[in-house]
Design a protein that fits this description.
Elements lengths: L23 E6 L5 E5 L19 E9 L2 E9 L4
Antiparallel strand pairs: 1-2, 1-3, 3-4
């Protein structure tokens, strides 16, 4: 769970130790399976904004992270506090 509400606490979905990998791709999907965010930059974290810069609505999102060719999946909850 994370809360991108400008309080600086749990404000981003962060992949730890990402600086040690050669390649990282992060994809975030909403509950309908629509991709709302994609990044191939290993230094980027997800702050709850879609690729158009709009804050995503509260709810459950699903991530696919491919790190050096290895795929990890899971879910997370976004609570914006708005």
């Amino acid at each position: 769970m994370f809360t991108p509400n400008n309080d600086g606490i749990t404000a981003e979905f962060i992949l730890t130790n990402r600086q040690y990998y050669n390649s990282v791709e992060t994809m975030i999907y909403n509950r309908w399976g629509i991709k709302v965010y994609n990044s191939k930059n290993r230094g980027v974290t997800w702050d709850g904004l879609d690729n158009g810069g709009k804050l995503c609505s509260d709810g459950t999102y699903f991530f696919v992270v491919i790190v050096d060719g290895e795929k990890e999946t899971g879910s997370l909850t976004l609570i914006s506090g708005n």
